[in-house]
Amino acid sequence: MSNESNNSIFLERMNSVQTEYFSKNSKNQLFKKSQKFDCAKYITDQLDINTMIAEAVFIIPNTNIIFIDYVIFKIFANEDIYNRIIDHIMELFDYAIQYYGSIQVNFNLRTFTVSAAERYIPAIKQFCNRCLTNQTNYTQFMNAFRILNTPSVMEMIISIVKPFVEKDVIMKLTFLNKNDTIQYCKDTNFNIKSDFIQK
To answer: DSSP for 42-67?
Structure first.
């Protein structure tokens, strides 16, 4: 069985466990934030955390591009494992610098909302503090930071996260809407795995 098939099966399993959680716990109209984190914790109790992290954050083979997929991240990410996720990102940054001398980041933000930005502020702060400050060298090696599937509310989202992000990183941001993302993926011969799972 190909690695791509294994990935698809695992992504389907993540979705299945998420569905299982909501079949046991009807969706809240209020307190959605706490329920989403409860669901994420339920999923991390059922499935291998390292495999989930590797599905959400990985280096595109034979490139210096670290790909972060919010669509997968949001299924399982919770405050108990933020540091593990960031450790993994830093390992990939180190690998790209060692073998390619630079870093590019592609961040798929399909389905990302203002409420998601507010919900993940602790994760964003931790990521920025550990990876995107002058105390680390990562920003010096970062050639590009692409936001794929840029949400329509991106300006509001940036206003929320901007206080935690270095100006150098803000300057390197490139925003690709849905059509631009499709074209970019065609040009680079890359498929976004989460495009094939539920939104």
So the answer is: HHHHHS-HHHHHHHHEEEPTTSSEEE
| 18-68 tens-digit pLDDT | 888 988 887 765 456 678 888 999 999 999 999 999 999 999 999 999 999
Identify which of 34, 105, 112, 41 has the alpha carbon closest to the alpha carbon of residue 71: 112
In order of their start, the domains of the chain are 52-196 (3.40.525.10)
Task: Report yes or no on whether pTM surpasses 0.85.
Answer: yes
Q: What is the DSSP string of the chain?
A: --HHHHHHHHHHHHHHHHHHHHHHSPPPSS-HHHHHHHHHHHHHHHS-HHHHHHHHEEEPTTSSEEEEEHHHHHHH--TTTHHHHHHHHHHHHHHHHHHHS-EEEEEE-TT--HHHHHHTHHHHHHHHHHHSSTTSSHHHHEEEEEEES--TTHHHHHHHHGGGS-HHHHHHEEE--HHHHHHHHHHHT---GGGGS--
Distance of CA 5 to the CA centre of its chain: 21
